[in-house]
Design brief:
This protein is about 65% helix and about 0% strand. The protein is mostly helical. It has a single domain, classed as Arc Repressor Mutant, subunit A, CATH 1.10.10. This is RNA polymerase sigma-70 ECF-like HTH domain-containing protein.
Length: about 90
Amino acid sequence: MRQTVIDNARERLACKRGGDLVRTQFDEDLPDRALDAPQALAVEQAFGALERQDPELAQTLNWSVFAGLSALQIAELREVNMRTVQRDLAHH
């Protein structure tokens, strides 16, 4: 999912594809916290270092930022308490 968002962001920013144009598209399937292209690329760069340091936290943030999952959904996937996920997301 993350790679799809990043590829889409890169395509939108490409000059030959009109990357300087402002496009608005409404899709009810996307999470409410959808990132714009520059934000998505900045988050992608930060994930590289985080994945080397703490792969579990990187996966948690990936699910939260790119997939739009709630803390409860992430807790179920990680098989941990929801408070653990909330703490991870709050501190990082």
